[in-house]
Every structure is written in C-alpha cells, then in structure tokens.
C-alpha cells in the first residue's frame, strides 16, 4: 500500500515530467508561416528579446523544450527552444509557428 506522502510525491513527479518529457519525445517538427514569411528566432522566450536569426516555413527543427508564453495575458501559446536540423542553430520560436511531430501544441 502506498502512503499518502509517497502518493503525493509520485503525483508531483508525474506532473513535472509532463512538462518536460513531451518536448524530448516530439521528434522532428516543422516550422509554418504564410508563404514567403520569415519566422523570428529569438535569443530568449519573449518578443522583447533579439531576433538575430530567422526560419522559413518548412524548416525542420528539433524541439528541445517549451515554456509558457508570458508576453500575452491569458495566452494559451508557448515558446519553444528549437534546434534547426540543417544549420544546428538554436533559438526560441513561438508554438503557433510549429507543426509538432507528435501533433501537440
């Protein structure tokens, strides 16, 4: 029988893992945007940071991790740190510009 303390610890660990594990399990994802549009790749997960790089629709990326978008109040979007498959460049892209390999958001 599991004690209440151990059950609480187990549930906490499961909740924490749900925020980090899916990003690693996503595989190769694809950037999306209007035809010909550039997608800003930022140095930090905020629109206030520099966009020293850009991607285009169709670029393949590996999602490293995602964090909640804190720029827009009540936003259901995330910022995801990505690594470009071809160039190996790493930066942050908002989740609405990503088609996730696992179908997630």
Task: Describe the model.
The protein has 105 residues and is an alpha+beta fold. It has one domain: Roll (SH3 type barrels), CATH 2.30.30. Helix content is 21%, strand content 33%. It is built from 1 helix and 7 strands. It has a 5-stranded antiparallel sheet with strand order 6-5-4-1-7. The chain has a two-stranded antiparallel ribbon with strand order 2-3. It is globular. It starts with a helix and ends in a 6-residue tail after the last strand. Residues 13-25 have low confidence and may be disordered.
Question: Helices, strands, pairings?
Answer:
Layout: H1 4-25, E1 28-31, E2 38-41, E3 53-56, E4 60-68, E5 78-84, E6 90-94, E7 98-99
Antiparallel strand pairs: 1-4, 1-7, 2-3, 4-5, 5-6
Keywords for this structure?
five-stranded antiparallel sheet; SH3 type barrels; globular; 21% helix
